[in-house]
Amino acid sequence: MSNTYKSAGVDKEEGYKTVDKIKSAVAETHNPNVLNNLGSFGAFYEIAGYKNPVLVSGTDGVGTKLKVALDSKKYDSIGVDCFAMCANDIICHGAKPLFFLDYLACGKLDADIAAEIVMGMVKACKDNNCALIGGETAEMPGMYKPGDYDVAGFCVGIVEKNHIIDGSKIKKGCKIIALPSSGFHSNGFSLVRKIFPDFNEEFEGKPLYETLLEPTRLYFQPIHKILEEVKLAGIAHITGGGIIENIPRIIPENLCATIETSKIKIPSIMLELEKRGNIERMEMYGTFNMGVGMVVVVDPEHAGKVLNLVEDAYEIGEITEGSEKIQLI
């Protein structure tokens, strides 16, 4: 019997099935700027309507949250997470997402599972007026066990050069406003899985995995709704490293983000994790978003308008003088 690629563990036919299952849905995310179809060696996107455009890119994965999805056999939300973790980063600079590409690696490809993951990306892209223009599926027996998957994405956005938001306009007295998260998003799941080993246990009347797999919130719509009416001094996406590490990334020298922790609305699942795992509160703030998925920094005279524009936004602090960059009180 002669050897084939399939006998080595790679089933090309399953890859073709995956493309067939997603091709029409992916095409629905395209707009006239997309100049070619899925299957080309490269993806083409035409830029028009900008005077001095700057491209802003971001790449990320979903970490070990993927393990929760695989063990629970619920795959659609992971695609949303993958897109959101990339797109939410570039939004911090005022950019509008243009296009997204994905990378899916596995030990043995299952077309149904792969398609379900990509369909989550499709949904997220459509909700954010972003084109899913390409991707790669890699079947790698020996590197991954059958049933194991890894997912990553790459997003490119655009912003006029004179509209870039980088925190340089933040000054003393600016208000810090929180946009709530939808849960853990895609950070800290190695600790989450250690404390919650049984994803099927009941939490607040439903299986725990449903709460853990709540998709990462997409912030394009609320952030750009604000930007249409208000100039923001800074935007921070609260991802790995939590509140403690991410807010200082946008704070200029000799200024400090003073956060009133009593104002932060911490989700019940995070309080349960903290209690069950005997985790110190500062460790929580340095690992998880604690219910704050994004923060915006704005001049005090515009803070009220931001709060009116985004229904669930709320103030959590202000910019003060200091060398620490962040202070939790």
From TrEMBL:
CDD domains: PurM (cd02196)
Keyword Amino-acid biosynthesis: no
Subcellular location: Cytoplasm
Coiled-coil residue spans: none
Keywords for the protein's UniProt record, in alphabetical order: ATP-binding, Cytoplasm, Ligase, Nucleotide-binding, Purine biosynthesis
Residues of the PurM-like C-terminal domain: 171-324
Entry keyword Nucleotide-binding: yes
E.C. number: 6.3.3.1
Main location: cytoplasm
Recorded metabolic or biological pathway in which this protein acts: Purine metabolism; IMP biosynthesis via de novo pathway; 5-amino-1-(5-phospho-D-ribosyl)imidazole from N(2)-formyl-N(1)-(5-phospho-D-ribosyl)glycinamide: step 2/2
InterPro entries named in the record: PurM-like_C_dom (IPR010918), PurM-like_C_sf (IPR036676), PurM-like_N (IPR016188), PurM-like_N_sf (IPR036921), PurM_cligase (IPR004733)
Catalytic activity: 2-formamido-N(1)-(5-O-phospho-beta-D-ribosyl)acetamidine + ATP = 5-amino-1-(5-phospho-beta-D-ribosyl)imidazole + ADP + phosphate + H(+)
A family per Pfam: AIRS_C
Domain named PurM-like N-terminal: residues: 54-159
Family designation: Belongs to the AIR synthase family.
Protein name from the UniProt record: Phosphoribosylformylglycinamidine cyclo-ligase
Protein's gene: purM
